Amino acid sequence: MNKLRFATPEDCPSLLAIYSPYVKNTVISFELAPPSTQDFRSRIAATLEQFPWLVGEIDGKAAGYAYASKHRARTAYQWSVDLSVYIDPAYHKRNIATALYSALRDLLTLQGYYNAFAGVTIPNEKSEGFHESFGFRPVGVYRHVGYKFNRWHDVKWYSLDIGNFQLPPMPPASIGQLRNSCKCDNILGKYASLIR
Questions:
Q1: What distance in Å separates the CA atoms of residue 21 and residue 26, rounded to the nearest whole number?
Q2: The domain at 2-120+165-192 falls in which architecture?
Q3: Gap between the Cα atoms of 108 and 80, Å rounded
Q4: Rounded Cα distance, 17 and 22, in Å
């Protein structure tokens, strides 16, 4: 059975197992070493105070995850978020990233966010193609912004409008305020059906 759900700190070992190879073997993540189990558990818990962190399951196993985080610290940025998604390579081409991002987008809109951004270390044709097919627009490239594996890397940034830009905007609600609502359950159920 395929399922989308909110992460819990208890998911830490399975999600860290997905994430660590991206840190150790790729420039998809700019971390130089995988976080400790305790640090990763703390990240999940801290994120869930305000933002969604979702897990995609196939037959009871975590196959991927996606989450939102604060875009920038200044108050006027409070309606903007950054998105990240990581999929276990064994489950590529199962539509998990699309399901996770679709649910994340709708949950963030429900919370009152207006802009979603994603950074992609380039070149990465798969990730660039995925974000563009999802509706993200390229907005610029940070040149030589990260140093890993003995070279400098560029990051291409993408933007996605997820709200209707009301005036004045209300401060976004925390996901904790909405998490147990029927609306959240409906969003997760709706997009779980996209997983193949």
A1: 7
A2: 3-Layer(aba) Sandwich (3.40)
A3: 10
A4: 10
Looking at residue 152, its pLDDT comes to 98
pTM: 0.96
pLDDT value at residue 107? 98
Domain residue ranges of the chain, discontinuous segments joined by +: 2-120+165-192
Instruction: Note the pLDDT tens digit of each residue in 98-135.
Output: 999 999 999 999 999 999 999 999 999 999 999 999 99
CA distances from 196 to 18, 93, 98, 180, 183 (A): 19, 8, 11, 26, 23
Tokens matching residue 5: 């759900």
